[in-house]
Design brief:
With 157 residues, the chain is mainly β. Helix content is 11%, strand content 59%. It has one helix and eleven strands. Strands 1, 2, 3, 4, 5, 6, 7, 8, 9, 10 and 11 form an eleven-stranded antiparallel beta sheet that branches. A hairpin with a 6-residue loop joins strand 2 and strand 3. The longest helix is centred in the first third of the chain and has 17 residues. The protein is elongated and about 50 Å long. It starts with a helix and ends with a strand.
Length: 157
């Protein structure tokens, strides 16, 4: 699992450095990162098609919390260059911490799916997404989980 996550991170970095594809940054509330900042890019020069995302989020309450790192692949379907249906999936490693005790930390991973709407204008500007994100892991499945995100889509060159 760690090799898969590392491979996806390397693919994002290489794609960012060498492609001129559609890119967006956004904040998502809910979704696989709970409350996360994310980067999304297409793997080709098209506005739709296959792409991916990586994020960083989490929470902390009184010194105890968790960090979420959602990584995923998605596919956008749309014809008007602005409105898309999004399908996807991925994994989210979770790292907990407790500043009062060094023995209570844990690491876990869960899977997630994406089924939703995305507003991503071809010429750049306001970015919005809303999705149902079923999540699953060892011994659990939550089919009715979701999230909304908003941010900025950069103009494609």
């Amino acid at each position: 699992m760690k090799k898969t996550v590392l491979l996806l991170v390397v693919a994002f970095c290489m794609n960012t450095a060498f492609s001129q594809s559609a890119k967006a940054i956004y904040f998502e509330l809910g979704g696989p990162g709970l409350a996360s900042f994310n980067f999304d890019t297409r793997f080709s020069r098209k506005e739709d098609g296959i792409g991916g995302r990586i994020g960083f989020g989490g929470f902390s309450i009184n010194g105890t919390g968790a960090v979420f790192v959602p990584v995923g692949i998605n596919y956008l379907i749309g014809k008007d260059g602005k409105n898309y249906f999004e399908l996807g999936g991925g994994v989210t490693p979770v790292f907990s911490f407790d500043s009062y005790s060094s023995g209570d930390a844990f690491t876990a991973t869960f899977g997630h799916l994406n089924f939703g709407y995305r507003l991503q204008p071809r010429e750049g500007g306001f970015f919005f997404r809303a999705a149902i994100n079923p999540i699953f892991g060892k011994g659990f499945f939550w089919p009715y989980y979701g999230g909304v995100g908003f941010g900025y889509k950069f103009r494609s060159r």
